């Protein structure tokens, strides 16, 4: 499957062709403020993804996909700020930069394959490793509370399967050059997503 090539070898041992993201050298202990910043920056990126999909008719197959996260993130940001007496921060450099990169990405139809790579990797990473991160942060920082960010309105595996099929169908008419353009964008998706994860594992400036 084409979509599976956007995974790393660790994620998909047989089909994965994407470069593995670099791991931090030293352990990092995040605070509640770090986690709140991560949520705020994440919302900025998800908002950009949703705005682009809703504003481009060529991307209509990805509207109302069930993957959308901005509503859940807004709930969680407000809950954390209230529950732990934290001030809601402005979006940091990581979220602002990645969201702006996404918004500037699509200048013409030729740019759609690269965008689809970001769409796929950012959403699906959250549904895989992101859920494990959520469990870690819940135990470490939230007294075991589960955030709405990590909940969906349907079975996660069914949601993933349906959206993978949508991507496969969408890309079925692409030329080899367009498919390569999509796959070759994968390192940039790890760079963007990794900059946000830096709030939790070290590396991102506030």
Automatic annotation (TrEMBL):
Residues 1-29 are annotated as: Disordered. The keyword Nucleus does not apply. GO terms for biological process: heme oxidation; photosynthesis. It is found in: Plastid, Chloroplast. Residues 7-23 have a biased composition (Basic and acidic residues). CDD domains: HemeO. One of its GO terms (cellular component) is chloroplast. GO terms for molecular function: heme oxygenase (decyclizing) activity; metal ion binding. SUPFAM superfamilies: Heme oxygenase-like. It comes from Thalassiosira oceanica. Keywords: Chloroplast, Heme, Iron, Metal-binding, Oxidoreductase, Photosynthesis, Plastid, Transit peptide. Pfam families: Heme_oxygenase. This is Heme oxygenase.
